[in-house]
Write a structure and sequence with these properties.
The chain is α+β, with helices and mostly antiparallel strands. It has helices at about 5-10, 30-40, 90-105, 170, 180-195, 205-210, and strands at about 20-25, 50, 70-80, 110-115, 120, 125-135, 140-150, 215-220, 225-235, 240, 250, 255-260. The strands form 2 sheets. The chain has a 7-stranded mixed β-sheet with strand order 1-2-3-7-6-5-4, with helices on both faces. It has a 5-stranded antiparallel β-sheet with strand order 11-10-9-8-12. Strand 4 and strand 5 (about 120) form a beta hairpin. It binds biotinyl-5-AMP. Biotinyl-5-AMP (BT5) binds near residues 59, 65, 118 and 148.
Length: about 260
């Protein structure tokens, strides 16, 4: 039986906003899809949708998020920040920092972040974030941040990700309480969201955690592939790439791979 339920989550919640409304499913298509529908119907900021299984879990650009039932944290959070639409990535930044802190605090494992949306442990992907937003009249109406984190997952259960993915239990050699991890993540997100709303930018702290900065990389954007030096990120989370000719490109979305030479 799963330890996740509305009651069990509420029992240890240390927040005033994030997760004050909880929608739990043992199985659903995608927590992001469900929450986008609730957002359009006026659901309050902080709403948490969480599931033990997704039958259509999504990554970016039509990719799939894979997670055998009851092994992972699969959740989405609703924000209604007073930001411009191009600032939605700030929420990806605060959530990924809170996840990294929670992993390190609870397990001692080193958690790294990979631009723009991955959680890495010892060189392998342990989690991903999918941020989707809705706009009305040029303003952000809502932002849904979807988080998938491999917690108690034997990677052998996902042979298609062999060599690329890992999980907390795989790295630790023991299982981790998904509830404890969830409480820590939500509390961390709330504190960071408060400072974000006070105007404090998380991008320097985020940059310090990014494992792909300071390296020669190749970046595949939806339009083209660029190679260069991953120099930094700006306040909105865009990657600053220095090209071989010295000019700088600001990249908002893409996939980064390290170049060996
Ligand atoms: C992501 O996309 O990494 C974002 C994943 C977000 C998933 C959460 S789960 C809750 C919420 N509801 C949803 O429907 N989605 C969000 P991207 O950077 O595009 O990476 C996707 C790629 O990661 C896939 O093509 C696989 O190669 C790999 N992948 C899939 N499942 C994985 C897993 N469990 N662990 C590690 N890698 C995985």
């Amino acid at each position: 039986m799963s330890e996740l339920s509305v009651g069990s989550i509420k029992r240890g919640l240390k927040t005033d906003l994030i997760g004050q409304r909880i929608v739990y499913y043992s199985s659903l298509g995608s927590t992001n899809e469900l929450l986008k529908g609730l957002a359009a119907q006026g659901a309050p900021e902080g709403t948490l949708v969480i599931a033990d299984e997704q039958t259509a879990g999504k990554g970016r650009l039509g990719r799939k998020w894979l997670a055998p039932p009851v092994t992972s944290l699969l959740l989405s959070l609703l924000f209604r920040p007073d930001f411009a639409p191009n600032q939605a990535q700030r929420l990806t930044m605060i959530c990924s920092l809170a996840i990294a802190d929670a992993i390190e605090g609870l397990t001692g494992l080193p958690a790294g972040l990979k631009w723009p949306n991955d959680i890495f442990i010892r060189g392998r992907k342990a989690g991903g974030i999918l941020t989707e937003s809705g706009t009305t009249g040029g303003r952000l109406d809502y932002v849904v941040v979807g988080i998938g984190l491999n917690v108690n997952l034997a990677i052998s259960a996902l042979p298609e990700l062999s060599g690329m993915a890992t999980s907390l239990s795989q790295e630790l050699g023991r299982e981790v309480s998904r509830l404890e991890l969830l409480w820590k993540i939500l509390a961390g997100i709330e504190i960071r969201y408060e400072s974000l709303r006070r105007g404090e930018s998380p991008h320097e702290e985020w940059a310090a955690r990014l494992i792909n900065l300071g390296h020669q990389v190749q970046v595949a954007t939806p339009q083209r592939v660029l190679a260069g030096w991953a120099e930094g990120v700006d306040a909105d989370g865009a990657l600053i790439l220095r090209l071989p000719g010295g000019q700088r490109e600001r990249i908002l979305a893409g996939d980064v791979t390290l170049r060996s030479n």
